[in-house]
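Appendix B, Record 12. Input sequence as logged:
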Amino acid sequence: MLPPFISAEPEREMMIKTIAELREDYIEYGNPDWKIKRMVENGHIFQVKRGIYETNGNVPGRYLAAAIQTPSYLSFEYALVYYGILKEDSFGYTSATCGVKKHKKYENHFGNYYYQDVPGAVFDTGIEHMEEEGYEYDIADPEKAVCDLLYKAGAMNNMQEMRRYLFEELGIWPDDFFGLKLENMYSYSRMYRSRNHRILERLINTVK
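Logged structural output:
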């Protein structure tokens, strides 16, 4: 179900709407599509993707990620920025999908959105369901976001390369990383069955 929202436009209920819903709203106009086009041009509504619109141009972009690609949940770099683990905030809205196979990117008024598959076995694990201002979205917990990020990262050969990737390339503070729930991260990691995650498990074991 698409999430409701509150309108910044006077006397108009606001929500994420499909083109079909907007056509119904403006059925009294001889050409509803022309009316919708003019509203987009005038900044009264904003196209999120083809056929999907948002009428509040000030909503945080994370509220819209699931409407662009369903099912999906926010993860990878964006989730780590959200939790304060990553300090650099230039990654856009990065989300995990399952079964899409192709990487997808969307650009709109609210930002850049990126979607990438993770294994089906882990897709429903380590996800937080959030509700804010009438919107609903899912986001990986920080431990799951680390595991997702290592799934899409290039193959690493040893723990030294992983430390370099996490602490130098990404800029995660070691204290922040080792302050996460490492037992949860370890449990998630074992589900990916990849070389990177085996190295992550060894890294976690150094502090157990």
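Residues 142-152 form the longest helix (11 residues).
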